[in-house]
Amino acid sequence: MAERSKDAPDTGRMPTLDELMSDDFDPETDIDWTGDKTFKSGFACFVGRPNAGKSTLTNALVGSKIAITSSKPQTTRHTVRGIVSREDAQLVLIDTPGLHKPRTLLGQRLNDLVRETWTEVDVVGVCLPANQPIGPGDTFLVGEIAKLPKKPKLVALATKTDLVSGDALRKHLLDIQGLEEKLGIQWETIIPCSSYTGEQVDVVADELVKLLPYGPAFYLDGEITDEPTESLVKELIREAALEGVRDELPHSITVEIEEMGLREGRPEDRPLLDIFASMIVERDSQKGIMIGHKGEHLKEVGTRARHQISALLGTPVHLDLKVKVLKDWQRDPKFLNRLGF
Question: In which band, very low, low, confident or very high, does the pLDDT at 81 lie, cut at 50, 70 and 90?
Fold first, then answer.
């Protein structure tokens, strides 16, 4: 992670994101900031077991779909930053993969990414789904955060409250509170919420902002993510591919964009975005499943992905989608590096 020297001359530029998130960064001295110093800005991340509602909550707070969601575990494979801009603050949300017991090199790298993110944020929101009892995975996760030399502020988020009764929710909140004594931590606040109904999502935003330091906005008003368009497209294709596949397939699927660009010769008022992409799996048998009988499944995935991409980018899309096999790509450093992990 890049670090900016305190003695470095003022270049008059905004620092890079790596500089903004370094331990030595101080917005009071490292940015030529003459604005209202009652404004707050900073970084928060959501953590939790796989399928705890982290990505759905990120999307709800940002007000737009920037992180893919699925009922399949380990959907998120890299950090996704969502930007919430308000009159009084700018909150940068970092959605992370779920911490899990790694069985592949990919799994190890994702866990390393999660732990690195913990050290870079002001606040960690721990997602503890209200429809699931607090288990060993949750206590392990919070215990690992408690071991950090530089501890972020902790907020407990009882997600998915729409799936439980009032009595069950009250018991869940008491169990969350009990983690303080059990693990030697302190929750800044405990918030029940539902991304599905929107209940208390605004409270989550308010409470996270309260815990941020004073500082300037890092992004222009109106920006909702710094995620490259190509990465967003890959993720939307993978989300479409995850729907309806068997349990063993989600971990084996990734996506590679081979070419993407506006088609030449089109009128300005009728653009068309050409995307040539491959869904990558680990075995020939998985390739057959993804293609389906007479290519029907591949067509379904392409149709779902095309509609999602077009809705996100506001441009008609032509998607050329293939399926490739890279044997055991999750365990091969060469393939992981090539695919951006």
Answer: confident
